[in-house]
Automatic annotation (TrEMBL), chain A:
SUPFAM superfamilies: GroEL apical domain-like, GroEL equatorial domain-like, GroEL-intermediate domain like. This is T-complex protein 1 subunit zeta. GO terms for molecular function: ATP binding; ATP hydrolysis activity; ATP-dependent protein folding chaperone; unfolded protein binding. GO terms for cellular component: cytoplasm. The keyword Nucleotide-binding applies.
UniProtKB/TrEMBL annotation, chain B:
It comes from Acanthoscelides obtectus. This is Protein misato. It is found in: Mitochondrion. Keywords: Mitochondrion. Belongs to the misato family. GO terms for cellular component: mitochondrion. Its main location: mitochondrion. Residues 137-330 form the DML1/Misato tubulin domain. It comes from the Eukaryota. One of its GO terms (biological process) is mitochondrion organization. Residues 6-119 form the Misato Segment II tubulin-like domain. It holds the Pfam family Misat_Tub_SegII.
């Protein structure tokens, strides 16, 4: 403190230095991410020190894999991955926009404009941009066609078009099958199952459930048709009660006696299931499947196998809920009042074995309200890539259902907002208008980068788009195949409203916060090095 | 015969060091061509698997967690099930516009000589007899890993980096909130389920956790999940603490004081969780004190180890773990399981249990156990639980002896001479003799003894910490002679015990006192971001520790 009183320059230098650090970090992370934006961006293959491979184009995945040392850069990375957590898309855009906002601000700050005034302008611009967003959003009917458009726009920026088309179909079908009228969709009711097998385009939707385990008894049926499904959370394995001492007091015979008494209790439980099976299935062509969240020990399995019952143990907790939705029936916590009405139904239940992994398919359900996306790929890193893409695809579809509207893609929003903001700028008095101008300019980073990644000249493209935009009432976007202006609506290129809104909000706030930083401290102690 | 499987979980780098030694020791003890089955049922901790090419594999039933950048030359999925992908080939397989595929590789680490030899089919057989400079060369646990893992075993935390001061994973709440991410709550929990599902008679979990870092929080999150999902299975937790903290000399005093406080709070919070949810927990460390800074290392006779090197200290703790867990892993004790062990040792709510070790248990060539015990002065074992000096009154204890065959018990009648006068001469098994010995040296203690004939294999990559008085076969050499420098000790007898004794109360009290002194609002790691820790939670944790301590007070209960 004393030093800054004696030497007023110290304070200024520190402020400018802090800002310079933040801006350079933002630019740095922008440079790394720039090349992946859009369907023509580069795919990155990451090879670890030990030779593990990861292939991705998804900004979110990249940010998680990168080793980020710089605190500001990691702040931006976290904000962007939070964007993905909320909406499933827009990570790369967030990084680009934050970087560009700071870059534009830097020009004005260098000329002596106080960051506070800039951020005021940013805030006004943000509100205006949201207005523009409201204006150009297109209300849509929720049908297969719209959902396919938006899902495909998102997925084509993440995987190869051929695969993107397969995944788009799978994602849209999955959501449409579990969607119930006006209720919000629970994405957890879409199970994602990996199978290292065949190729990525063999990924398919199973209208039922796929479990990652199988039967554990050699005599148990491996495939059943016309099945009753009992889902339960009841232990069918003998466990010693913990009170008896292991070291002392017990002779072998005493132990045996205790074991058989406790064992009897489990036998009776299993017998209840068998009785119900006999009552319902014997003499008909129906069969019986037990799927249990708790364990089933070999003796119980043996009893069930003798009756031709297929039994699976240790099912996922969430699969209890999914099974009830896919097959009907209820998950039972006790076997005391077991009735036919508590059972579900599936047309076909069968096991598939791959090496040491077993999979059980529960298919041909009557009205499945829970489905499984079965992802296939020749190796782990391909599967991972598909999994990331499917998650994002599902979110894109779900966002559309929630928003009931879409935004024209291909940079159209950014071009339109730029036009409107430049007009808006003139209505503002004072220096805050500079902030609005900077914001308007920064937005163009999206179409510019799209153009550069596709091999076109950034300036050429922007001029073309701005000209077209002035002439047309409809939003104008960039055709990456030709480099010309198009109306994205005609090509079916749509983005999520929610994603754009989130990008505008979070970028403006983070950029403003970073601009206002005038001292960087470290772990409670100020570090002079920054 | 039914095998009662156990799943092992390792959280954190030091836990993984200990784990690595532990799996190495076990695999060194495998006998492939022996006609009589081994005493140890390896299927308890190992599982048989099948690759897609129908090759049978035998790998630890294990899940381990470590931070990004801690593996060096070890690949995450291993190469047991499929060969490592070739970057060039994979690049050409990527379907994308040519020229738009970018390869970013971190510099490839070079494998050390030990791993190179393991990969070389001609040398692989000889590895156990070779000499490697592990003391200097080891940076991370994978450097001395002999065992090979199942692809699902290694789990890497992407959010934090190993040894990176900018993204420290140092505070308990960071760990608990990490558990709540999909990577753990879903993927990791699924892996646990996969392992448990395939066991016919699953008995419980062994958990090793670096409780002085945020891994304590992660382990606690996992523990709660296990309690929830596998309610009646036993969970044996080993909080492990290294004997040296690398930051002591490497940073400013202020930072060092903060680090000390952070570690202590982590330990207190972890112990509180372990006391609530585990079946039993046994803190392990080779130093005498572990709160704040590590105290001086424990002295083991005939061992000369470097207390700073995790490679050395973890090896000592690994031999203890291998011996302590023997009882529920023996073929002969098929109806004894983890729950019995825990039930007996944690009477009266004494969930914290102390451990001790004698490494090596060395007898002179030709000497009998009877003479050795008769002449032995001082305590049988050295405590390896920090801040806890185990006294003579132990209430309940379980001791395991490895590597003393019945043939070395006593002299035959015709040569016995004065031995026959000793009351212990009537003992016919090692177990009986130890039982008797323990009843003489401890007061009011119920002892239980387990014996295993086979000694522990300590060939490379086990550190060469035994001094020259110990011969290659683990015997004490005659006075005046010593082992050649270039020969290594191959096997060793050990004794290790678990003790429920009142001194654990002292350990808990000292931890309580140390933690009480720390002003938690000053540690931003605990209060911000991770968001976890409310002041009340912290106070409650301290109260719980104090209450736990009181369980150890009643001297009159037995």
């Amino acid at each position: 403190m004393a030093i800054s009183l004696l030497n007023p320059k110290a304070e200024v230098a520190r402020a400018a230095q802090a800002l310079a650090i933040n801006i350079s970090a933002a630019k740095g992370i922008q440079d790394v991410m720039k090349s992946n934006l859009g369907p023509k961006g580069t795919v990155k293959m990451l090879v670890s020190g030990a030779g593990d491979i990861k292939i991705t184009k998804d900004g979110n995945v990249l940010l998680h894999e990168m080793q980020i040392q710089h605190p500001t850069a990691s702040l931006i990375a976290r904000a962007s991955t939070a964007q993905d957590d909320m909406t499933g898309d827009g990570t790369t855009s967030t990084v680009l926009l934050i970087g560009e906002l700071l870059k534009q601000a830097d020009i004005y700050v260098a000329e002596g404009l106080h960051p506070r005034i800039l951020t005021e302008g940013f805030d006004k611009a943000r509100e205006k941009a949201l207005e523009v967003l409201e204006k150009i959003k297109i209300p849509v009917e929720i049908n297969k066609e719209t959902l396919t458009d938006v899902c495909s726009t998102s997925l084509r920026t993440k995987v190869h078009p051929k695969l993107a088309d397969v995944l788009t179909d799978v994602c849209v079908d999955a959501i449409l099958s579990i969607k119930q009228d006006d209720k919000p969709v629970d994405l957890f009711m879409v199970e994602l199952m990996e199978m290292q097998h065949k190729t990525e385009t063999d990924t398919q939707l199973v209208k039922g459930l796929v479990l990652d385990h199988g039967t554990r008894h050699p005599d148990m049926p491996k495939s059943l048709k016309n099945c009753y499904i009992l889902t339960c959370n009841v232990s069918m394995e003998y466990e010693k009660s913990e009170v008896n001492s292991g070291f002392f007091y017990k002779t072998a015979e005493e132990r045996e006696k205790l074991v058989s008494a406790e064992r009897e209790f489990i036998v009776q439980r299993v017998q209840k299931v068998i009785n119900l099976k006999k009552q319902l299935c014997d003499g008909t062509d129906k069969t019986f499947v037990v799927i249990n969240q708790k364990g089933i020990d070999p003796m119980s399995l043996d009893m069930l196998a003798k009756e031709g019952i297929m039994a699976l143990r240790r099912a996922k907790r969430r699969n209890m809920e999914r099974l009830a939705l896919a097959c009907g029936g209820v998950a039972m916590n006790s076997l005391d009042d077991l009735q036919e009405s508590s059972l579900g139904y599936a047309g076909h239940v069968y096991e598939h074995v791959l090496g040491e992994n077993k999979y059980t398919f529960v298919e041909d359900c009557r009205h499945p309200q829970s489905v499984t996306i079965l992802m296939k790929g020749p190796n782990k890193h391909t599967l991972q890539q598909i999994k990331d893409a499917v998650r994002d695809g599902l979110r894109a579809v779900n966002n559309t259902i929630q928003d009931k509207c879409l935004i024209p893609g291909a940079g159209a929003f950014e071009v339109t907002a730029n036009k409107e903001l430049l007009a808006f700028k003139d209505t503002i008095k004072g220096k805050a208008r500079l902030g609005v101008a900077a914001y308007a300019e920064a937005l163009l980073v999206i179409p510019k980068t799209l153009a550069v990644n596709s091999g076109y000249d950034a300036q050429d493209t922007i001029v073309k788009l701005q000209e077209q935009s002035r002439l047309s009432a409809e939003p104008i976007g960039l055709d990456l195949a030709s480099g010309e202006a198009i109306n994205p609506k005609d090509r079916g290129i749509f983005d999520n409203y929610l994603v754009k809104k989130q990008i505008i909000n979070s970028c403006s706030i983070i950029a403003s916060n970073l601009l206002l930083v005038d001292e960087i401290m470290r772990a409670g102690m100020s570090s002079l090095k920054g | 015969m039914e095998t009662k499987g156990i799943l092992t979980l390792q959280f954190g780098h030091y836990s993984n060091c200990i784990g690595t030694h532990w799996w190495n020791i076990q695999e060194a003890g495998f006998e492939y061509n022996s006609s009589d089955p081994s005493e140890i049922n390896h299927d308890v901790l190992y599982r048989e698997g099948l690759t897609e090419k129908n090759q049978v594999t035998y790998t630890p039933r294990l899940l381990l967690v470590d931070l990004k950048g801690s593996l060096r030359t070890l690949s995450e999925r291993g190469d047991l099930y499929e060969p490592l992908p070739d970057p060039c080939k994979e690049k050409s397989r990527v379907e994308w516009q040519p020229g738009h595929v970018e390869v970013q590789s971190t510099s490839q680490y070079e494998k050390n000589q030990f791993h190179k030899d393991l990969e070389d089919p001609e040398k692989a057989e000889q590895v156990a007899k070779m000499t490697y400079d592990f003391d200097k060369g080891v940076q991370v646990w994978s450097d001395f890993l002999y065992a090979r893992f199942h692809p699902r075993t290694v789990n890497i935390v992407r959010e934090y980096e190993h040894c990176n001061e900018n993204t420290p994973f140092d505070a308990f709440p960071l760990g608990t909130s990490l558990w709540r991410t999909p990577a753990f709550e879903e993927d990791f929990a699924d892996k646990i389920r996969n392992y448990v599902e395939e066991c016919d008679h699953f008995q419980g979990f062994h958990m090793l956790s670096d409780s002085f870092t945020a891994f304590g929080g992660l382990a606690s999150g996992c523990l709660e999940h296990l309690r929830d999902e596998y309610d009646r299975k036993s969970i044996l937790v080993f909080p492990v603490i290294p004997s040296h903290f690398p930051t002591t000399n490497d940073c400013t005093t202020a930072q060092s004081v903060i680090n000390d406080s952070v570690r202590t709070v982590n330990l207190a919070l972890s112990f509180n969780q372990f006391a609530t949810h585990s079946s039993m927990f046994v803190p392990l460390s080779t130093s005498t004190r572990s709160w704040r800074q590590a105290g001086p290392g424990r002295n083991f006779q005939y061992i000369d180890y470097d207390a700073i090197s995790p490679y050395n200290t973890s090896a000592i703790l690994a031999t203890a773990l291998e011996t302590l867990t023997m009882k529920h892993r023996l073929r002969a004790s098929s109806n004894f399981c983890l729950s019995d062990l825990a039930a007996d040792l944690t009477l009266h709510g004494r969930k914290a249990v102390a451990a001790s070790l004698r490494l090596p248990f060395a007898m002179r060539t030709g000497e009998t156990l009877l003479d050795n015990l008769d002449q032995w002065q001082g305590p049988l074992t050295v405590a390896i639980t920090p801040n806890c000096e185990i006294g003579n009154a132990r209430m309940m204890q379980h001791v395991c002896i490895r590597g003393i065959p019945t043939t070395r018990l006593k002299k035959p009648v015709e040569k016995a001479g004065s031995q026959r006068e000793l009351p212990a001469y009537k003992c016919c098994t090692v177990q009986e003799m130890f039982q008797m010995y323990l009843s003489f040296v401890t007061d009011a203690t119920a002892s239980h003894v387990t014996t295993v004939n086979k000694p522990i294999n300590v060939r490379a990559p086990f550190p060469r910490i035994f001094d020259a008085k110990i011969g290659a076969n683990g015997d004490l050499l005659p006075e005046g002679s010593s082992r050649y420098d270039n020969t290594a000790v191959e096997k060793i007898a050990t004794v290790s015990g678990l003790h429920n004794c009142s001194e654990i109360g002292d350990m808990l009290e000292s931890l309580h006192t140390e933690t009480r002194r720390i002003r938690i609002p000053r540690l931003h790691q605990f209060t911000n971001e991770g968001g976890g820790l409310e002041r009340d939670d912290f106070e409650e944790c301290l109260d719980n520790l104090f209450a736990l301590r009181e369980n150890y007070e009643d001297n009159y209960v037995i």
